[in-house]
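Schema walkthrough. Field components (list of strings):
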Amino acid sequence: AQKITQTQPGMFVQEKEAVTLDCTYDTSDQSYGLFWYKQPSSGEMIFLIYQGSYDEQNATEGRYSLNFQKARKSANLVISASQLGDSAMYFCAMREYNQAGTALIFGKGTTLSVSS
Amino acid sequence: DAGVTQSPTHLIKTRGQQVTLRCSPKSGHDTVSWYQQALGQGPQFIFQYYEEEERQRGNFPDRFSGHQFPNYSSELNVNALLLGDSALYLCASSGGGGLETQYFGPGTRLLVL
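Field assembly_structure (string):
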């Protein structure tokens, strides 16, 4: 069963607009972490934001915020005031804490295109 | 402060050959994880090394093996290469025994002909 689902293959937005990238997850663990990474065409995965399952406040990092709805098992990324440099692939990932290690499980990603 | 580095950046091999990819973690990090990313897909976890031992392994065959050195750097070895091994191989490092956020290197693009 897919543990991370990103249903939007592609999203298109204009500069300065806000955009929400969807992510739902599936786990039976109480303790887990959720991450968003950005991957430009160069290939490097860039860490954006983290939300722990016990965090009561939604995480924010500059223009990025994570809309965490635990009961719905969703962890959507909100980018405010989009910039041309935001055009990239975005991946949602989860880390479960019941494993011996700390492997990340990734979704299939969403391609974001920002136009002027 | 140098980030995660990987070498080589690109590699072309033929079926049946063997390949070694290298990764140097971010300063202060003690855990290295390897991921395979096929074109158009999300990264898939291969394995994770901590204290020079393989601590966790994903669903990859034994042809994929690795090593971690005392300085925390790591190697990924793939034997008997198949066409399907063509992918971007990403290394990620983290601190705190792996409990902290994983930071990725630029990746190695492997093409198997």
